Amino acid sequence: MTGRTGEPVDSGRNYIYWTALGLLIALALVALFSFRAAASTREAQDKADQLIAAIEEAGGQPPSQEQVVRVLGDDGGAVCDDPASGLRRAILHGQLTNGAAGPGARPVIADNRAVRGQLLVVEIYCPDELEDVRTWVEDLKLDDVAED
């Protein structure tokens, strides 16, 4: 079938074929990423179970597995993003204060448990950073000051 100019008329089937091919490729990509996410979730659950067991062994009250997986994932999340950096130390030092705001804020001798959880997370999720974190945690003035 030809049009007025003598060229063949496009019946529109080419668009259907290209659209179907595009959808097939998109679905294949979604399936591939879903498979990787499932493997990542399995690893995250295993690490979360490890952390929960370590917290219970230390005598703490652990969060649920779902909470740990959501916050730390399979790579430790923000905790393992350069945990020995100056910013991370400053945040921890800011948390080890008397609770006042502004000029009334003073450092305190905090309980040992204040950093024990962070050390457990680093030990399980990013063990290669553990020695760096331990070196600056050892410089903190910590003691058994909280009651059980």
Structure overview:
- The protein is mostly helical and 148 residues long.
- The protein contains five helices and two strands, in the order H-H-H-E-H-H-E.
- It has helices at 13-57, 65-72, 86-95, 113-125, 130-137, and strands at residues 110-111, 142-143.
- Strands 1-2 form a two-stranded parallel ribbon.
- The protein starts with 12 loop residues before the first helix and ends in a 5-residue tail after the last strand.
- The mean pLDDT is 84.
The first-to-last residue Cα distance is 89 Å
Spatially, the strands of the biggest sheet line up as 1-2
Helix share bin: 55-70%
- Determine the structural class based on helices, strands and strand pairing: mainly alpha
Give the averaged pLDDT, no decimals: 84
- Strand proportion, as a percent range, falls in under 5%
- Total of helices: 5
As a whole number of angstroms, the C-alpha radius of gyration is 27 Å
Strand tally: 2
Largest β-sheet summary = 2 strands, parallel
Shape: elongated
Order of helices and strands: HHHEHHE
Low-confidence stretches: none
